Amino acid sequence: MRIDHGNLRALAAVVREGSFERAAAVLNVTPSAVSQRVKALEERMGRLLVQRGAPAVATPEGQVLVHLAEQTAMLEHDALNRLGLEDEAESASIAVAVNHDSLETWFIQAARIFAGRSRATLDLQSEDQDHTAALLRNGAVLGAVTTLSDPVQGCRIHGLGSMRYVASCSPEFHARHFSAGVNARTLAAAPVLVFNRKDALQARFAARVLRGAPWQPPVWWVPSSRAFVQATMAGLGWTMNPLPLIQRELDGGTLVPLRARAWEDVPLYWQHWRVNSETMDTLTAAVLEASSSLVRRRA
């Protein structure tokens, strides 16, 4: 069975952009043309490939073909580069999932290194570090920074080091809530900052202190890594801040740890689909180089 390349590109664009209209703008055709191409592909495959909605999302069968489309585009980009026809190549954009804190700290350095070595760009998708692997598994991205230490089927995995998170707050907040120490009673009463409903870092730190005691503190929901730092300095609550974002504040005393050794090291891994691609090799090398700023385990 042969798959029409144009129809495959249309499917990938719809899933990537989330709608037939935005896909049409990217492909420089009409929404009707995109719809016809996707419908033709569905008829060829004999199954539904896109759930029409807001946003449009791939079915499990559609995800397989989106992954094929993304890999094909990257390999085509590589081939034209090797032939010296890079000016003829369409701009390749590699879909990558990166956890919020890596994106705010070290990953842009990886993008800068990659940009100096490749003409491809990155389609960065931000997600919690415990959930980026799901985007890799369903074919939505070709690479991901994740906490998953087991390789996703069909993927290669590289250890990057660990992101260190420090349980921290402002000196005034510490004096107000933890003057009697960090214990089950004080943690239960002190407001805490949480990124979103997927963020379990604060709960894990609290669990080590509470040892089974219930924990239902006042919560501030703050879905921004940098706003986290600002909110912590403003005294709204304590939280687990990424060390690279608050090292200067800790050194200057505008933020303080909740207690001695109040940190957690979260191991990070780079996983990408197992494909023989110069572009992916270049991106992987850039990620490994930029991640040298992460905490390394001592031998």
UniProtKB/TrEMBL annotation:
From the broadest rank down, the organism's phylogenetic lineage runs:
Bacteria, Pseudomonadati, Pseudomonadota, Betaproteobacteria, Burkholderiales
**Gene Ontology terms for molecular function:** DNA binding; DNA-binding transcription factor activity
InterPro entries in UniProt: ArgP, LTTR, LysR_HTH_N, LysR_subst-bd, WH-like_DNA-bd_sf, WH_DNA-bd_sf
Tell me which species this is from.
Answer: Parapusillimonas granuli
Transcription regulation as a keyword?
yes
| Protein name, entry field | LysR family transcriptional regulator ArgP
The family database entries (Pfam families) matched by this protein are listed as: HTH_1, LysR_substrate
Domain annotation HTH lysR-type: ranges: 1-59
Family note: Belongs to the LysR transcriptional regulatory family.
- Could you list this entry's UniProt keywords, alphabetically sorted: DNA-binding, Transcription, Transcription regulation
